[in-house]
Amino acid sequence: MTRTSLPFPDGFLWGASTAAHQIEGNNVNSDWWRKEHDPAANIAEPSLDACDSYHRWEQDMDLLAELGFTDYRFSVEWARIEPVPGTFSHAETAHYRRMVDGALARGLRPMVTLHHFTVPQWFEDLGGWTADGAADLFARYVEHCAPIIGKDVRHVCTINEPNMIAVMAGLAKTGDQGFPPAGLPTPDEETTHAVIAAHHAAVKAVRAIDPDIQVGWTIANQVYQALPGAEDVTAAYRYPREDVFIEAARGDDWIGVQSYTRTKIGADGPIPAPEDAERTLTQWEYYPAAVGHALRHTADVAGPGMPLIVTENGIATADDARRVDYYTGALEAVSAALEDGVNIHGYLAWSALDNYEWGSYKPTFGLIAVDPVTFGRTAKPSAVWLGEMGRTRQLPRAER
């Protein structure tokens, strides 16, 4: 093995990410909890206790810090903070502030996400993001997060993957039962405009709490690759599913880039990966270089000066050696983009823990395994490898 120094600048974020509903357990007031227990939704299994991280967050942070990570992205559950409209829980607010303080005490810089796919049931009942006054309701919730983020939190994400929120809204409106073999369904245009408005309102609310907070949002980048002659088709397909959300973030302090695989586009639209392509547990094509393409495309759309942070990147696999291989290829792509002048400020892996992947516990993305009965945490070799890389700033690679 050879070691190559990584061109990470001073202050580069090096960590892992999680989402509240996927790890906390028993988020009984969220829309997803209701969906998981609705037979008509055809959800494979409910989240139930998840990883019990609501009670065991200190163990999670201890492990991440011991492994060598310097940053931890976690989310605040809106349905806990505001379980009924206009009523805010001081106890839950204090809980998330303890998490911020706990991260800081362990040398982990907290990145706080204010919305990661779930909303309170009452918000969904009003009509969700497209309801009258939805942006104001979200901004009001953000304002009440001031005790959580108002001190010593440098990076705040307003909304995770708004393009996927719009895609899921499109599915719901059309009555379609699932995703096509390749590519994404058509996003709902009304929801697209609504989440952009909510984001802008939230950015304003965060900056009112503290103008020094670096605020942005994260976008799911599908790495649309045009086959010869399909460049115009690809651009038209990509714009409503991705670029419109990047453009909406041009006034932000940073953009989160989240990428896992690629989608090839031909003259007639998305093309499934070949039958013999290696696939992950989510059935996505194994393609570690995706994150490099995602970073470069985001920089092209947002402008060369926009700071970018890889806020999610990883692989669902039961083979941890393959996880190391994936991260090796991904980090080679990130390093190459940095060397070419792309303004990258951090890399956060998905996910810190094996967790609830929106309907199933089978896709294991985690650097840390979680026993479903005892909730014992065990760092995988990939976690040790990735954490050590943060200390050494060197990427081990096999000689070619």
Automatic annotation (TrEMBL):
Organism encoding this protein: Streptomyces cellulosae
Pfam families the UniProt entry points to: Glyco_hydro_1
Membrane-spanning parts: none
The organism's place on the tree of life at top rank: Bacteria
Gene3D superfamilies per record: Glycosidases
Name this polypeptide is given: Glycoside hydrolase family 1 protein
SUPFAM superfamilies: (Trans)glycosidases
Enzyme Commission (EC) number: 3.2.1.-
UniProt keyword annotations, A-Z: Glycosidase, Hydrolase
UniProt-recorded Gene Ontology molecular function terms: hydrolase activity, acting on glycosyl bonds
